[in-house]
Amino acid sequence: MNNLVILPILIPLLCAVLGLIFRGLVAQRILGVIGSVAVTIAALCLLRETQANGYVILNLGNWQAPFGIVLVADIFSAVMVCIASLMGLLAALYSLRDIDVGRQKRFYFSLFNMLLVGVNGAFLTGDLFNLYVWFEVMLMASFVLLALGGERPQLEGAFKYVVINLLSSSLFLAGAGLMYAKVGTLNMADIALKLSTEPNVFLINSTAVLFLVAFGVKAALFPFFFWLPASYHTPPAAVSAIFASLLTKVGVYALIRAFTLFFESSFIVQQNLLLWIAGFTMVTGVLGAAAHYNMRRILSFHIVSQIGYMIMGLAIFTKLSLAATLFYLVHNILAKTNLFFVSGIVQKVRGTEELKSLGGLYRAFPWLSLLFFISAFSLAGIPPLSGFWAKFALVKASLEVEFYVIAGVALLVGIFTLFSMTKIWAEAFWKKSPVAVDASSAAPEQNQLQLMYGPTIVMAVMILYLGLFGEQFFELAEHAAGQLLNPAGYIEAVLPNMLSTAQNP
Amino acid sequence: MNTLLAILIGALAAVAIYCMLRRSLMKLIIGIALLSQSVNLLVFSASGLQSNRPPIIDPAQKTLGMGAADPLPQALVLTAIVIGFGLIVFCLALIRQTYQATGHDDINALNTTDT
Predict the structure, then answer these.
(1) In this model, does residue A209 exceed pLDDT 80?
(2) Which of residues 358-417 of A touch B (CB under 8 A)?
(3) B88 lies in some domain
(4) Does residue B33 lie within any of the structural domains?
(5) Which of A15, A163, A258, B8 could bridge across to A35 with cysteines, CB 3.0–4.6 Å?
(6) pTM above 0.90, yes or no
(7) What confidence score (pLDDT) does residue A485 get?
């Protein structure tokens, strides 16, 4: 069943191309949804396969690694592909109602599918330059999705997003070229093999920092994240939600893959740097959120702050912390996307997202308030929701290795996150509405918004499930962390017999 | 030759960043184009700079002999050029849309969504 690895890339690609051929609105919608359903099923099968076999490898074109491009799925990749495909499905359903017909006619769903192609490809590839190509595919699709519709804030946000991400792509390409010049190969397993026996630390460090900056811009680390709050709140809510759930997490995935696979032998040198960056990211993100009074701008800053937690987990580099990072990734994708979905519904029913003009939502829409409550307080880390277990595991991991400062920073930032979420709750949901809400206004009725409520409810149920019954998922995360801390296993799976010949020449 | 190419890559990158920091959107695009050229040259330099044999196998041989240029970075540069070309075309379309929406190409005026 090796071909299972290519299905998460091939299915959305096929649906995107068919969407360009069949241009009717109904065809576009069907292809968008069917593609997401099919890729979710394929991703779940892939996850089961990796749990059984450890690694699922496919040599593309039957060219043997390290000369050909290889697709590798370990448990970490498979979990990321699963959650990305699931988010794609829920966002596609949400988009059916949220995105206006004009955008849908102009190939919105094809672009959506291409975004999924890029994201799944980045998660599954085992070749460094192929990773660059998938990054570019994802970036290109996100550029167009951001600017689709051509409203003025979108164009402004698109410029900031495009320029800084192009810069980071150039740095990544430079790093990949330098890596090839240094070790003579682009296959990730082969690079790991050659770098693990390399005595010249300087050779490794310069490339490591170049990758750190390139992936750091993508993942919205400090001090590279300023494009995110300037651009994520400009497109329609469904687009914001899918960006928030997927794009920065691909950067985090690339960082984890690079630092656990290539630079693992000299990680102690970069560990301090990553810890400082993580701390600053957490703090600046949450302080930025405290300064704004627009729902989506606050949530964009929180994306940055939560990325800091994940990089903290990477920097600590123990089995528990990597397992906590994976758990945090999944929890955060769910909670953040759900918060953006809720803000999209608020935009639809009240026409604004400014906290100063909102109010009385609890009285008018109690179920929506419950959905916001579950997602927001999961993000803030209130037990028994999923965010609590994720933060608890991270702080415990950092206390186990006596990194007290970063643990303190993480807890303090948790308090500030709670403050932000309570601010939104108090301003938008709890207080009375400052403007008289016309009951016969043009806002759509709740039963017209079923397609938007549906995915939101599903995600809230998943957050509750992850919080109350998350133990089996945490065990899976620990299994994945064990795989990540064992690069020899990865190398052995991709390049059989080369590991032993390299160590006994 | 290596030193000259290194200086060229650095100079191109410097000019590119300078252009990207200008106020006009068109100069921003020129800066992006120059930056992608500079990085493409960097990747190309990874193939070892020799002015002798192209990576073509002799009819009498079965493998590429010693001293021929490395073909892989050349393939990487080709891919990168094409990707860069697509991105610049998108940026041009974005500039045109912005010009139609705002009537000027001053990037300092596009600050309503700033952090």
Answers:
(1) yes
(2) none
(3) yes
(4) no
(5) A15
(6) yes
(7) 92
